[in-house]
Amino acid sequence: MDLHQTVDEFASYLALERGFSDHTVRSYRSDLAQLVDFAETHGASELDDLDLELLRDWLWRASQDGLARSTLARRAAAVRSLTSWLASTKATATDAGTRLKAPKSEHHLPRVLTREQIEDILGRVSERAETGDAVALRDLAIVELLYASAMRVSELTGLGIADIDLGRLTVRVLGKGSKERVVPFGIPAKRAVEAYLDTARPQLVAEYPTAASPLFVGARGKRLSSRTVYELISRLLATVPGSGPAGPHTLRHTAATHLLDGGADLRAVQEMLGHASLGTTQLYTHVSTERLKDSYRTAHPRA
Fold first, then answer.
1. Of these four, 130, 153, 172, 272, which has the most CB atoms within 10 Å of its CB?
2. 152 an active-site residue?
3. Catalytic residue among 176, 181, 223, 291
4. In angstroms, rounded to a whole number, what is the distance separating the alpha carbons of residues 293 and 254?
5. Does residue 235 carry a pLDDT above 70?
């Protein structure tokens, strides 16, 4: 089996047997494809040629190219998963990647908007929606639901009409690893989604919606892509003061932090976000602490 075919089969294994998300599978496939290209330029064409020295050289070259530590860590994880799978299936005699290490990821606090900033964004989107434009109504529903539910962009674009319960103010979300959870949202999001379903969605798609139909659709009536949502949020954040990422995940970070600022239980927020580890959710307690320190330094006379 050649290296390219191996990567294809491994990607299928991750998707079908391990239940990895499409995004993770694409990332691993891309990383491993680059490993194969690197290996071939160094005369390695067989599975047993993927030894620890070659893997370390590949990571070292990537670090010299200026890749972020988080990217290097993901590449190392992809390789370790591949070599472990190869060893478990007896395709190789040993697991060459078991001792492969990458630099520790840099732990930057996520970008979080203030309440005033999120209100300004929602106000601008609401103003456009008042024109009755179908896309503007859809965009308002998207922003309201993202902020209200703290869901990931891939979870939002994967929603079907049957997944949202406007009566109970909940939405059924399919998260990472195909794990399902039910997430609450508030009255403003309900109103925005209702207006979108009643007025805007019928203008965007001529077909009669069924329970399995996608909740959010694009201008041509097809399921909305994550890229479209990224572009929408990036435009909205472009004029907001502050540095850091300018995508939908900023709304997720913001919602989680605002929940904790408001006194929400950490484990409840963990469940809402769909985090497997409480440690991941605890990152937002650090954000809240830093925001408190900033406010103290600004406002307290003895700071």
1. 153
2. yes
3. 176
4. 17
5. yes
Concatenating the DSSP letter of every residue in 218-263 gives: -TTSSBPPHHHHHHHHHHHHTTSS--S--SHHHHHHHHHHHHHHTT
Among residues 28, 147, 196, 284, which one is catalytic? Answer: 284
The model's pTM: 0.66
Predicted local confidence at residue 303, as pLDDT:
45
Q: Cβ contacts of residue 217 below 8 Å, gap of 6+?
A: 138, 201, 204, 205, 223, 224
Do residues 175 and 298 touch, judged by C-beta distance below 8 A? no
Least reliable range by pLDDT among 135-149, 235-249, 252-266, 280-294: 280-294
The CATH homologous superfamily of the domain defined by 3-88:
Tyrosine recombinase, N-terminal domain (1.10.150.130)
Does 258 qualify as catalytic in the annotation?
A: no
**Catalytic residue at 147?**
no
* Annotated catalytic residue within 29, 111, 252, 258: 252
Q: Within the chain, which residue ranges are assigned CATH 1.10.443.10? A: 115-299
Catalytic: which of 80, 152, 201, 258?
152
Q: What pLDDT, on a 0 to 100 scale, did the predictor assign at position 48?
A: 83
In the annotation, is 107 catalytic? no
CA 215 to CA 302: how far, in whole Å?
A: 52
Burial of 300 (0-12, 13-18, 19+ CB in 10 A): exposed
Has 138 been annotated as catalytic?
no
pLDDT class for 299, splitting at 50, 70, 90?
Answer: low
pLDDT > 90? residue 261: no
pLDDT at 211: 63
Distance, in Å, from the CA atom of 176 to the CA atom of 83, rounded to the nearest integer, reads 23
